[in-house]
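Why does residue order matter? Because the sequence determines the fold. Keep that principle in mind as you read this record.
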Amino acid sequence: IGLLGLASLQTTGLAQTSEIRNRTQAILLIDDMFERIRANRTDIASYAVAAGTAPACDKDYAISNTSVATDDVAEWQNSLGCLLPGGNGVVTINNRVVTVGVTWATNTGSTDDGTVTMEARL
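Structure:
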């Protein structure tokens, strides 16, 4: 019975470690978007990203050199798809207050997705 308890504890610990990694990655991706916007404040409105289907991961992604904001958003969405399971993001801009949210599919057996949202005045 003791060994079964330890095995269960080990399994739960591994799942929680994976979720902590996903949450940390989500926070880093949110910070990445804030920094992209800070570097291109004159085009802040172009960084809005509506909720939609989760982007796919393109391992051979290359920027298209259309505009800085368009390339930043496309690269960020590709990173969401590559770095988080079912990763998706939304960016809203309201009077220079930027809210960035990231969701991903959890692997803890829960039906809820993981979510991190942060807000900054830029």
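Residues 2-39 form the longest helix (38 residues).
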